[in-house]
What does this fold into?
Amino acid sequence: MATIKSLNPFSEAHISGILDSFFDQTADDLLSPEFKKVKYGRSFIFSSFPESSLPSVFKLAIGGKESLSHTENELLTKVLKNVDNYIDSLRAKTKANMISEIDAYLSESSLKSVIPKKEVIESVVIKNLDKAKTHLATISEAEATRIRNLGRVVSIAKSSASIGVEDPDVYFVIVRDGATCHYCIHNHLMPDKVTPRVFKLSEVKMSFLSKEDKEQGEVSCYGQHPSCRCSLNQLPRYFGFKKGKLSYTGDEPVA
Amino acid sequence: MKDLGKYYKTKYLNLRSQYIKTIDFAYREGYVKGREDAEKDSLMQQVQTQQMQAQQMQGMPQEGMPQEGQEGAPQKGQAQLPQQERQPPEGTMFDGQSPEEIDGLIDALQQTIEKSEKENPTLEKSLKTLQSIKSMNYSNNLNKDGKMALSEQESLIQRLVSKWDSESSDVASQIMASVRSESF
It folds into this structure.
């Protein structure tokens, strides 16, 4: 009678531990080590912003201030908690997929009474790590875009309030190269594909855009897609666009 | 009677505006002249101080140095301008001033204009322009911040992915070691 072989619980726990520490390190790099203190309530504020981390992107987007206000801290913490949850779910999914695929291969090999090949298991591990990398890059890009544009929203709202504008005019600056997508050009620019479209800040959505939203010309601080490089900017008061160039008009711009 | 009152009021307003213009012009002229005089004085003082210092350091003129009256020597009464003063000023008008300072100056100007006369169309336009300069100042700073944040984002993603690439092979070999110990 053929026996079904699978990973023993110790191996499972070991694989799980290796993946946990790898994902923990990645989360630390992305969210900054200080996030853990904030997450577990040991601290309520971000006092350091290590280079190449989401808090540092936020800090630069709001003007490179040394310390954040209470509201900014809360906003940053909220977004980082979301990113942490996404990474947790990616970690759980990667663990589950990898262990179940190795298990399945070991079971099949034992049923066929053949010795499992090292190369096959290696390819399963590498395939799952590559998948996780792609998902992680997507999460990081989308959330970094969001956090960058949220920082810009905070900054724009603050500066416009100081000059007495309640709902400021904003526009997106797009990065033009071969990778610029159709929606970025269509929704962030006028039909001449040069002049930026001007929106009221209240018209900019704070959530992901569905395909229908994009087709209807909606804009969001998440950008048009996860790796969107378009940046939200404030249109100065009494300025407008003439032939695609920012120039003084002397009138209140019409959004 | 009503028309007569209107006539006198218009006449009074015209006279007042002429008076303000004259005062303003006189003030400006006086200010400009005063500033020029102050610049000349400070320049003369600098030249005198330099000459005094040179005399103190050297005691007497050295050989090879142009003497007074020779070619190349400064003539009497003609100020020798320091080298820096001859060069055109570099940088923009906002150099060395923080955005807060500029905002403070604009606010002060706005208040002065608002106090002086509200219904003057020229002043209203000046007010608008000041506000636009203020918002342009904010906007320029914001654009700069946005660019820096975008490059930070790009370097973050690059670093994250390259670190994952370099470390995932170690992770894979650790996992393989764990599976191998029981399966092969």
Summary: Helices of chain A lie at 9-31, 34-39, 54-61, 70-112, 118-162, 182-188, 211-215. The first helix of chain A runs from residue 9 to 31. The longest strand of chain A covers residues 169-173.
